[in-house]
Design goal:
This protein has 373 residues and is an alpha/beta fold. The longest helix is centred in the middle third of the chain and has 30 residues. The N and C termini lie far apart (56 Å).
Length: 373
């Protein structure tokens, strides 16, 4: 049952809270249950909640986290549920939302909850961790479903004007087919009969394999970038002519390439938090380069260097001068809201790196363009 409150006064009462009851009137039983669920969460902002003073009815003392999850899944539509669960984890830090088995089995998968799982999985027992992994798998599936299409479009090859003997739908040439069969138009029936469909060929964008090395900053503030980089790496790994490596770093460097085909397993191994030594990660990438002119290093970071800035600049410049394409990504979440050290980014640009802030889909297009250049 999804709560439906047609009375505008009751909706205002829910929006404004208990102080508005005198002006708006009382609530129905269902609306009061919704009010209790909202107050359980947002009442934490009230000074009375800090002092433990609650009014009568279902309040913080009556609802456990599982009770609250069950209540909101009964009362609210999906988009409201996702917002409430997101606020519980990110705004109020209620870790039990993602460390309680009963809750995880009911919770609505979302990227917000995926971020919370990655931050709190060290608190989970094996049963809870198994449930969390299922949640991670579902969110990754949704991201990959969208991102894989964008990656295929970016790297799928350009159409040329030569006819093709491979008669597949993606190569169908509508205009040439129409022109070739116009004489078979029958005005009385208003139908065009196609005898000779025309197909065109596609030229491959990369004739030789490329090495793509993704260096992913796994400091706590970069969780969105870690998630989308893992999925991006899996998408690139599936493309022909690509050798994709994924390396995570903070003050240490961990090569996760063995799991690049499985973003769920990869994410469950990432250790978020700690400092940042970008220069050390770039040094590791240098050791992986076999053919500089066919290599791309993608550095996904906020560029706040905790190690040697001079060493970072020197190593990036050395990569560029050897022929490696160095791309810096300041943001890799779906909203592309950049928060990074602009001064450091500018220094890397002066060394020959190219730095941008974009969504994963935009990264795929950018990466394809740089590899064609």
């Amino acid at each position: 049952m999804i709560l439906d409150i047609p009375d505008p006064l009751q909706r205002w009462r829910l929006l404004l809270g208990e102080p508005a009851e005198t002006a708006c009137g009382g609530l129905s039983a269902d609306a009061r249950a919704a009010d209790a669920a909202l107050d359980w969460l947002y009442g934490r902002d009230d000074e009375r909640a800090e002092r433990g003073e609650r009014s009568a009815g279902l309040g913080a003392s009556a609802l456990s986290v599982p009770d609250w999850i069950n209540a909101i899944h009964t009362l609210f539509p999906r988009e409201v549920i996702e917002r409430l669960e997101c606020d519980a984890v990110e705004r109020y830090g209620i870790a039990e939302v993602v460390t309680n088995l009963e809750v995880l089995e009911r919770i609505e998968p979302s990227e917000s909850l995926l971020r919370a799982v990655l931050h709190t999985r060290h608190l989970m027992n094996p049963d809870v961790l198994a449930a969390a992994r299922r949640l991670v798998a579902e969110v990754v599936r949704r991201i990959m479903e969208k991102l894989a299409t964008e990656v295929r479009q970016a790297f799928g090859g350009t159409r040329d004007r030569r006819r093709s003997r491979f008669k597949v739908a993606r190569n169908f040439d509508f205009r040439r087919t129409l022109a070739a069969n116009l004489r078979r138009w029958q005005p009385e029936r208003k139908k065009l009969y196609v005898e000779t469909p025309v197909f065109i060929s596609r030229s491959r964008r990369q004739a030789e394999p490329w090495d793509i090395i993704l260096l992913i900053d796994q400091s706590g503030s970069m969780v969105d970038s870690v998630i989308h980089s893992a999925v991006m790496a899996a998408c690139l790994w599936q493309l022909p002519g690509m050798r994709t490596r994924l390396v995570a770093f903070d003050t240490a460097v961990v090569d996760l390439t063995a799991d690049v085909f499985d973003p769920v397993e990869l994410l469950m191994k990432v250790q978020l938090g700690g400092g940042t030594d970008i220069a050390q990660a770039v040094a590791y990438a240098q050791g992986l380069i076999a053919s500089p002119s066919r290599s791309v290093v993608v550095l996904v970071s906020d560029f706040y260097e905790g190690g040697s800035v001079a060493e970072l600049v020197r190593r990036v410049q050395a990569l560029v001068e050897s022929g490696v394409k160095v791309l810096g990504l300041a943001a890799l979440d779906m909203e592309a809201k950049p928060a990074f050290d602009r001064e450091m980014a500018e220094r890397l640009v002066r060394c020959g790196a190219q730095v941008g802030a974009m969504t994963p889909g935009q990264l795929a297009v950018w990466l394809a363009e740089k590899m064609r250049a």
